[in-house]
Design brief:
The chain has 2 domains: 45 residues; 138 residues, DNA polymerase, domain 1, CATH 1.10.150. Helix content is 37%, strand content 13%. It has 5 helices and 6 strands. The strands form 2 sheets. It has a 4-stranded mixed sheet with strand order 2-1-4-3, covered by helices on one side. The longest helix is centred in the first third of the chain and has 34 residues. The radius of gyration is 31 Å and the shape is elongated.
């Protein structure tokens, strides 16, 4: 077996301590250098334009003076796009609209006429936009109660946080727990992205 004298043991322990101390000093110096280099960089990074768009593009059709597609500031509301379209014709029925609702990029608003039956041809009511619907709006859909409405809104908000936009297609509803093919078929014609 290999034995070391007391003096040799002390020398070896001292060398090990020096090695550890030297490694610690080098690690500290590297970390300090990295911290100094990173402090020169900005701490905040500006969000890209895609995350927070400054404009939204909206299509408005039906009983307005100038039905077409408009680009408005991102904070625009339903009333703003109606005004931009020259206002409504006298027969327009805006009672089913939430004029204060914020518009989402890609929304389509169809303004119906007074006295027209809800399911008649081109004056059919606007399908509910999944990207701008409130919880109360969603709860009016068949088979969608408070729990499913909350899940739909949570899914939309998560997509907006992660990708900068909400629903792209109505079949994304199938990604929401509890909304299966039966429930989806019951509401798919009543909603748009």
């Amino acid at each position: 077996m290999f034995y070391l004298s007391r003096g040799e043991q002390i020398v070896i322990v001292a060398l090990l301590c020096l090695l550890l101390l030297g490694g610690g000093v080098l690690t500290y110096a590297k970390g300090r250098h990295a911290a100094d280099a990173s402090s020169a960089e900005p701490l905040l990074v500006a969000a890209s334009k895609d995350v927070f768009p400054s404009e939204v593009t909206i299509e408005i059709a039906g009983s307005v003076i100038n039905p077409e597609t408009y680009t408005l500031p991102a904070s625009s509301r339903v009333a703003d796009v109606i005004t931009t379209a020259g206002g409504t014709i006298p027969e327009a029925d805006t009672t089913r609209l939430n004029l204060g609702q914020t518009l989402q990029n890609g929304d389509k608003r169809l303004i119906s006429t007074t006295g027209s039956p809800p399911d008649s041809g081109k004056n059919k009511p606007t399908a509910l936009s999944l990207n701008s619907a409130t919880q109360q709006d969603l709860e009016r859909l068949p088979g969608i109660g408070p729990v499913y409405a909350e899940r739909i809104i949570a899914y939309r908000n998560q997509k907006i946080r992660e990708r900068g936009y909400g629903f792209e297609a109505t079949d994304e509803l199938l990604n929401i727990p509890g909304i299966g093919p039966k429930r989806f078929v019951a509401i798919k014609d009543l909603v748009t992205p």
